[in-house]
């Protein structure tokens, strides 16, 4: 457990608008609970509830909700990206988040370092079809490319039996293997964020 106070933004990429229940939202809340045990305060946002416009710029113009979300991301040390699996891939909203983060590749801090250096990201995935490892790989690669650091075992997931209709939120109890993955991912994420907060990456 870290003694450093940290902030996380949890972007939930369910296709279900609030207040409809969501398995991605449930897993995200479980991640937030585990992070809280490591002095991390989380803010949760469902992307579908905000008008995040398509594009690869920091601000896509009038009505775009991304600039305000971006401010939260830049103020936080941790990003959690939670998504369902659809046809074997992250949701379209998760992909949109990555596309909007692409703008940060050209942003640098006062030392000339990419602006997202020293920030940590983890991934949470749910689905009732195969593809969790594929989705985690896609999102982790994209997050790493824009500057986030991915911790060891920095993901958690649950997938139901293939071609069945049971959702994560339908389970009477969270499977221990998923709960344990969530604990490890949250612990490692908080630990790494605290380390980078204390000892940032060096300038080039």
From TrEMBL:
Residues 12-153 form the NADPH-dependent FMN reductase-like domain. It comes from the Bacteria. InterPro entries: Flavoprotein-like_sf, FMN_Rdtase-like_dom. GO terms for molecular function: oxidoreductase activity. Transmembrane segments: none annotated. This is NADPH-dependent FMN reductase. The lineage of its organism: Bacteria, Bacillati, Actinomycetota, Actinomycetes, Micrococcales.
